[in-house]
Q: What sequence folds into this?
């Protein structure tokens, strides 16, 4: 996400910070490079022009030129303007005071609408809602079946009927009320391009069910096409928000940076992968921070809190205090990390690991699977007492996990190093330990 842009901006700002004092020429030269980087990231030309103008107005002022750290001051101005460009602050979805709340997802074919329905249903179910998925796309082959498969994997009901889409949507609301479902998520039909029949059908559905949210699902990888599509949907039927999919595959980020300025509509959700848990709430300030290579610690902590229960964290803390950490504990921690999402996405949230630091870095998700396989091939006793694993046991573990003895040796070496580090943590002064945990939480 934004990898190319982040890398370029980091280089520009590094040069800027290298100047002890800044002149107007220094700032103008840097902003020319920022302009070029934004245009190369496929950001709308007018949006770039307005953005640079805003930054320049503030940056070429006595305040910045006399600042003790002028380079940092300019970066702060760019950060503030990026946040404004992305929408200033998060806009939450609206829920009806009288259930059910109705979300209608619209968009072109191939944008990822059906998967987006599943992601939203999963997310809001975890937040205590009772979703009903509605298959209103009766034209695309297997669209209904795809939604039913998603519903089954989530253990959620899917409403479908052999009727016209408007009637399906109307009947689904009655069904939701009858079954006590407080959130209805409607998957509508798309087309390969915007046409009058598509818009007319969506307008009729909107009129029939009066939704709280009409959310456009747009493919971030299509860049300015996504922006133009959003503009047309807003003009024709009206939108409440945007769900940008495939952000994990978009190293440029032009759509995300242009769409709010062009349409006036907020990005509310971001899809960061194919799996149903690959969903992020969109926060303009956090996204601006990521674009500038500053990470996104708040989102990282939220992901950790969602994946790791307080009870599990306390249990691990007690083990660390007693200097007891086994391969079973290690395995449990791997499972917790997996719950947080793709590794490259997690690493990208850590300050200093965006842009150039991540460029070309290949995250081997299969390595984690190999580690799991090796631990699963061990006996309970071996997991609790790894020092018992001698040469013959290592051969057996390698054979059972489809790995090599070298792989097993490497895992054990890394584990014993980790165990040694944990023993050092356990020997720390208790008050320092508590303070450290407090700052982590």
A:
């Amino acid at each position: 996400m934004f990898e190319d842009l982040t890398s370029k901006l980091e280089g520009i700002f590094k040069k800027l910070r290298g100047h002890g004092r800044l002149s107007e020429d220094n700032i103008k030269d840097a902003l020319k490079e920022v302009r070029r980087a934004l245009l190369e990231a496929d950001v709308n030309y007018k949006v770039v022009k307005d953005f640079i103008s805003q930054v320049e107005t503030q940056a070429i002022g006595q305040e910045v030129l006399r600042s003790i750290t002028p380079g940092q001051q300019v970066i702060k101005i760019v950060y503030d303007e990026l946040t404004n460009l992305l929408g200033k602050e998060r806009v939450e979805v609206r829920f009806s005071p009288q259930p059910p709340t109705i979300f209608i997802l619209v968009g072109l074919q191939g944008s990822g609408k059906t998967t987006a329905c599943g992601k939203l249903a999963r997310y809001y179910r975890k937040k205590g809602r009772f979703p009903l998925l509605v298959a209103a796309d009766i034209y695309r082959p297997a669209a209904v079946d795809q939604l039913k498969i998603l519903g089954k994997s989530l253990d959620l009901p899917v409403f479908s009927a052999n009727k016209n889409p408007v009637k399906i949507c109307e009947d689904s609301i009655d069904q939701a009320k009858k079954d006590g479902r407080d959130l209805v998520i409607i998957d509508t039909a798309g087309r390969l391009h915007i046409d009058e029949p598509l818009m007319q059908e969506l307008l009729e559905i909107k009129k029939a069910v009066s939704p709280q949210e009409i959310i456009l699902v747009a493919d971030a990888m299509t860049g300015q096409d996504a922006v133009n599509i959003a503009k047309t949907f807003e003009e024709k039927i009206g939108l409440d928000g945007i769900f940008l999919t495939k952000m994990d595959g978009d190293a440029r980020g032009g759509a995300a940076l242009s769409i709010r300025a062009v349409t006036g509509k907020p990005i509310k959700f971001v899809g960061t992968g194919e799996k149903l848990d690959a969903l992020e709430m969109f926060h303009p300030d956090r996204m601006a921070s990521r674009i500038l290579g500053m990470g996104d610690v708040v989102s990282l902590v939220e992901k950790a809190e969602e994946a790791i229960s307080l009870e599990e964290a306390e249990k691990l803390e007690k083990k660390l205090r007693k200097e007891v950490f086994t391969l079973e504990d290690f395995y449990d921690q791997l499972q917790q990390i997996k719950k947080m999402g793709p590794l490259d996405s997690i690493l990208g949230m850590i300050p200093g690991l965006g842009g150039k630091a991540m460029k070309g870095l290949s995250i081997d998700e299969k390595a984690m699977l190999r580690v799991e396989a090796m631990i699963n091939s061990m006996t309970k006793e071996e997991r609790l007492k790894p020092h018992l694993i001698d040469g013959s046991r290592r051969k057996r573990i390698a054979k059972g996990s489809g790995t090599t003895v070298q792989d097993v040796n490497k895992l054990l070496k890394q584990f014993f190093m980790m165990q040694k580090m944990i023993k050092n943590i356990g020997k720390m002064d208790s008050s320092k330990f508590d303070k450290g945990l407090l700052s982590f939480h």
Observations:
- The mean pLDDT is 83.
- The radius of gyration is 26 Å.
